[in-house]
Design a protein that fits this description.
homodimer; alpha+beta; Jelly Rolls; 4-stranded antiparallel sheet; 50% helix; globular; DNA-binding
Chain lengths: 193, 193
DNA sequence: CGTCTCGTTGAGAGTTTTCAATGTAAGTGG
DNA sequence: CCACTTACATTGAAAACTCTCAACGAGACG
């Protein structure tokens, strides 16, 4: 279970054998099944969740009860309500498993402790956040500048494997579109080939 | 000039007198005038830019030549093409001063050096990025879930002072709307009062 | 077999954009 | 100081895009 985590960490920083010994103690493994919740809107998000297996979605509901996906996370990704975790406010997001999944959770206390006791992790998270910012910027640009078809194509090209693993309703929600629109776009694209 | 920087740093971390002595040497002050460019699309973004005075916009152009603002940065904010800076790719963004501005620039080499020689800065940037992620998440949600009026109102409430400092064309571009739409929304809002 | 989830399709409605015209304030050079 | 240009905001009408609502079909699962 920690293999995936170490593999992921080592893409960004170098871990010593000592680091690898220390790190696991800070985490708590957890398995959840499809449709189970990791976080409910209104609760406090007290853990950072690393996905070692499966897929997770985190989303907000609007006043019409519509779901807006803020993040799809699979093997090697983190999924949390960051805003709630950091600012210690009630979560505006819910987090739910799309497939049966395996996770490694770290509490806020352990997170802070980890950053101090294993300093390379401070660097790891700085780099992780740095990269996430780049990704989010790209997503924001495409959200503001692209039309539905362009958004869809960008998504498919960026995450081809995910596009096959999750129902298109979720992709629609991720892109801020309706499933019907996605369906029509696909028809369009096929006709053009 | 470093006062603003220190003030900003100290919102997130505690600096020792030694830190304050060391930090300035890593930065290069720069003044630019309204409409001058800090970065041109296609160049490499080799510096992180801290705004100590003025306002800066960073934006991408689409194939129709339309401007899409990815960031408005004023006193206490950083403005760069992060993707270019981190990944050492050609910049997709241009960065331009909206008002005469004063900046503190740090090169990539100095950035890396600063993170190692003044370890508290590693923590500072981790926290900075962490907070930026929260902001971007919120912006992404509103971009995907809100209609034009809701986006505009959220912006005005979030950045009331900026809304007065920059022309509404820029706000429109920031929100992924047209200036005409903003104009009509304002009319609507006034009528409703 | 019945139920549930997911995808497709059509028609009409709603929102936002586009294009074009006009007004206004500010900035510049003679 | 005035004339001229430029930047910005407003308004209208038509077009484009995406959503909503409703119906139907296909596949998975118990």
């Amino acid at each position: 279970m920690f293999d995936i985590l170490f593999k992921h960490l080592q893409k960004k920083v170098e871990l010593t054998a000592r680091d690898r010994e220390h790190i696991p103690a800070f985490f708590e493994p957890k398995k959840i099944r499809r449709r189970q919740f990791l976080l409910n809107e209104g609760d406090y998000c007290r853990k950072l969740n690393f996905v070692s297996k499966g897929i997770i979605k985190s989303y907000a509901l609007d006043e019409k009860g519509q779901e807006h996906i803020s993040l799809l996370a699979w093997e090697g990704w983190w999924a949390s309500d960051f805003s709630s975790f950091i600012c210690e406010e009630k979560a505006k997001l819910s987090i739910e498993a799309i497939e049966d999944s395996e996770l490694l959770l770290i509490s806020k206390i352990n997170y802070e402790k980890l950053l101090i006791e294993v300093p390379i992790m401070e660097r790891y998270f700085r780099i992780l956040y740095q990269n996430s910012l780049v990704t989010k910027d790209r997503r924001l640009l495409s959200s503001n500048a692209y039309n539905a078809e362009e958004k869809y194509i960008e998504f498919i090209e960026m995450y081809p494997s995910i596009a096959q693993r999750v129902p298109q309703t979720l992709i629609a929600s991720y892109l801020g579109l309706t499933p019907e629109t996605i369906s029509r776009i696909k028809k369009n694209i096929n006709r053009e080939d």
